[in-house]
Specification:
Layout lengths: L1 H39 L1 H38 L2 H36 L8 H31 L2 H22 L6 H27 L11 H36 L1 H37 L3 H28 L1 H9 L6 H15 L3 H10 L3 H12 L1 H10 L10 H20 L5 H27 L6 H23 L2 H20 L1
Length: 513
């Protein structure tokens, strides 16, 4: 029981640290992007983004190894096998060094050819574009080599390191923006050089910390063929799943463009961007809890792993709901303040996407549990097929004259089907899960509670004029009401008792202070 309490406290602490990190990064990102655009000018800012975007395409090869490294490190920690942990880390770092070398070859041949011959860049700015390109490559190479160290920090659940280094990163980028405003030189080149310096320092800080704190991070060159095969197989199936989602989104944009043109693409683009920011609230929670799900499974504590899957699905859903409900009822006002001119159908797209994301959050923990088993082939193939089914349905809806936002509605249905499919796969691989309990006590109970909150708050907001006072008042009332509904109806008896214990401890500490 004491172990479970300690784990719960660690998850709560790490979640809070990651939220503070996220809020800081969003605030700095919104401010610096505006100032950088103004300082560099539209043309140079466009060059930086198109070249950086090309690098991001190359970097996709690296992203599929991140989840694999994280999973294998967490699994080894759960088994408490220090020798195996050392082999996993060293093999992973060896693979990433090789991957960095391959990407360097591609970038300095094929990539450089595209930058200088295919992209439409003013001849007078081609030298600056090449500086941006090479700085981006250098930053990418350091990031790739740093992946095993970052994964090690997450696996060990030292999330405070992310918070501290993020503060440094944010402050450094603010200083860069300040410097750009006062120097008299090619600001695009200087901006690229300063950013790559910050990126390299970030990676080095992570590496120094890991080498000091974790024994397994003292690197020796190691090629474990069996381990490499396992990791590449895992990464390969993850890549198939990720490609499926990426293809679905890009194909969906093309379908919208064929029927309605770029204006509707802009509306969906804004909706996707806002959804991405809001979805980080759940993502940060899962970054804190996912190592524990894997560790408990690896250590043989299946019951504890199962309870974490149930609880984290519900908590992630509730965390998102607390943000989404007040945003949803004030959406028109918020978008008008932010964008001034809001593209048609943005509100409708955003409402549907947010509902889809909210439902999808109920199944993220089951995905982590499936990944913990290492057997992800059937899952990745099946879930990709399910979500790709949205495309023909969306096409048929638009072909029959429906408004463009109706094309997003099938995503709500596929999210529900995805919940069922994930749990079916998980139940086949790990004995002990209860389908009835998950659907009734987690999925249905969560949807019922938030459905009541959502409808009631929308009803109240309908009688209020959109303004800053309405935004503040409805957000406060919505948050308090949603908290109360979650506590009394969303939580079961055990969860309420845990919450009461934490609240009493917080109150007691404040009284003593």
């Amino acid at each position: 029981m004491n172990d479970n309490t300690s784990i719960n406290r660690r998850i709560a602490k790490n979640t809070l640290l990651l939220y503070l990190r996220m809020i800081l990064l969003i605030a700095v990102g919104l401010y610096t992007s505006r100032v950088v655009l103004k300082t560099l000018g539209i043309s140079d800012y466009g060059i930086y983004n198109v070249v950086g975007g090309f690098i991001s395409m190359i970097a996709y090869m690296n992203t599929v190894f991140v989840a694999a490294t994280q999973r294998f490190l967490s699994y080894s920690l759960g088994q408490n096998d220090e020798l195996h942990l050392k082999r996993v880390f060293c093999t992973s770092l060896t693979v990433h060094i090789f991957l960095a070398f391959v990407i360097l070859l591609l970038a300095e041949t094929f990539g450089l050819w595209i930058i200088n011959t295919k992209l439409i860049i003013e001849p007078s700015r081609l030298v600056a574009a090449n500086w941006v390109y090479h700085c981006s490559i250098l930053s990418l190479l350091f990031t790739i080599i740093g992946v095993p160290y970052n994964a090690c920090i997450v696996a060990h659940e030292h999330m405070n390191v992310y918070a501290y280094i993020s503060i440094f990163d944010a402050v450094a980028k603010l200083i860069i923006v300040y410097v750009l405003c006062f120097v008299d030189c090619d600001k695009l080149i200087l901006y690229s050089l300063l950013l790559v310096c910050v990126s390299i320092i970030d990676v080095l800080l992570f590496q120094v910390y890991c080498r000091k704190k974790f024994e397994e991070c003292h690197f020796i060159f190691l090629l474990d063929g069996k381990m490499i095969k396992k990791m590449t197989s895992y990464a390969g199936w993850t890549a198939i799943g990720t490609l499926g989602f990426t293809f679905k989104d890009q194909a969906f944009n093309i379908i919208l463009n064929l029927f309605f043109g770029t204006v509707v693409n802009a509306a969906r683009g804004v909706a996707v961007q806002v959804n991405g920011i809001i979805n980080q609230f759940a993502s940060n929670f899962f970054m804190a809890v996912s190592p524990q799900i894997t560790k408990q499974y690896a250590s043989g504590s299946i019951d504890r792993s199962i309870s974490l899957v149930y609880a984290s699905a519900k908590f992630a859903f509730f965390l998102l709901s607390i943000i989404i409900i007040p945003f949803s009822i004030n959406m028109n006002y918020i978008l008008e303040i932010w964008l001034d001119i809001v593209p048609n159908y943005t509100n409708e797209f955003l409402q549907i996407i947010l509902i889809s994301t909210l439902i999808g959050s109920l199944s993220t923990s089951t995905t982590t549990a499936i990944q913990a088993t290492g057997n992800i082939r059937n899952f990745q193939i099946g879930i990709s097929i399910i979500f790709l089914c949205e495309l023909p349905i969306a096409y048929l809806l638009l072909l029959n004259g429906y408004n463009p936002y109706y094309a997003a509605v099938p995503s709500i249905v596929t999210q529900f089907i995805g919940i069922l499919f994930r749990f079916y796969i998980l139940n086949k691989q790990v004995k002990g899960y209860n389908f009835k309990y998950f659907m009734v006590s987690v999925v249905f109970r969560s949807l019922m509670v938030i459905g009541i909150c959502f409808m009631l708050m929308h009803y109240i907001a309908a009688f209020m004029k959109p303004c800053l006072v309405t935004l503040i008042s409805t957000s406060v009332v919505s948050t308090i009401f949603t908290f109360l509904m979650i506590f009394f109806l969303g939580f079961n008896v055990r969860e309420r008792q845990i919450a009461k214990t934490y609240i009493e401890k917080i109150v007691k500490r404040k009284r003593l202070s």
